[in-house]
Amino acid sequence: MTPAPSSLSTLAALRTVQTRSISPENFDGSPGGGGRATEGTGAASARDLGPGWKISPSVDIPAGETFELAAIEGPGKITHIWITTHTDNWRTLLLRAYWDGAAEPAVEVPYGDFFCNGWGVFAQVNSQTIAANPHGGFNSYWPMPFRDGARLTLENTSTVDVRVYYQVTYEVGGDHSDDAYFHAQWLRSNPLEDRTPHVLLEGIEGRGQYVGTYIAWGVNSNGWWGEGEIKFYLDDDTDHPTICGTGTEDYFGGAWNFDIPGQGYTAFSTPYLGMPQVIRPDGLYVSQQRFGMYRWHVLDPIHFATGIPRVDIQALGWRSGWRYRPLRDDIASTALFYLDRPTARRPRTPSADDLEVHLGSAAVPDIGASPSRPPQG
Question: Region annotation Disordered: residue ranges (predicted)?
Fold first, then answer.
């Protein structure tokens, strides 16, 4: 089997696959099926031009309903997703992916969080796998292979209809029998329980590799908040992890509080890690500081042979006498991994209240919005 292109050095390789694309202009990705629409959200604007002139550029998803973005049969691989909608919808839409006819999703993540924009406020992201461009053009380049079909859906959990523009590009054919399946899970602690780490992932069985973390971190107190360690419990780990970080800003590639002297918190975005979002208090409705951070383990995937019992991160600041202070912050995490099976133990589906963002909330958010478990399966 000729390897799939992963860099410029292999881009010229000839491969026995074909490229297809699903969008509102070609719902099933059929060859020669694009630009044939006679009705759609752009029909009125194209009334003087007719078919082939942007008749169906988008879809409307009614409140409370789920729309199927893509249904693909046979072996293949999703190579790119472009999608956009209004910022108000970024935490009310749930993105799901199903592989090989599975009844349970391998991906279940709020739309904005999947694209490193968890706070409903735009942040530019320049990374190898996720690009977020003005103003809300979201792109994913995570490879998503499958052996016997794929489904992508978008659920509208809000009380209003939502208009979405999207395009899913994929390959059909190829041998993916040795490829792992892409998974993404979302968990939120709001607020985090006292002296308890936030769980990113738990109870995963199988062989694979952990490849990425995004966290929308809301700080509910004054002072520095990023002393906490991230811990990866792998395979047979129980009481102690195999991988233990040295601090939150260290894991996301920064240092010394992300603070450039004289400038304070400084946003940055690189191919594999970054803190692209810093939301500061505005003196009116926006109170606590909010951050968005990502860490892609593309060049340094975390391999496991039998599973991941747990991944967690501490929320830790400082108190008097240079003593650590456990914090009760609002932490929403997206954990990304590849697994040798299309389904995995996953958290329960979040409710609309679990997803809701309160940028102007009180110092400690409503405990009623906090449940991030128990898991399913």
Answer: 20-51
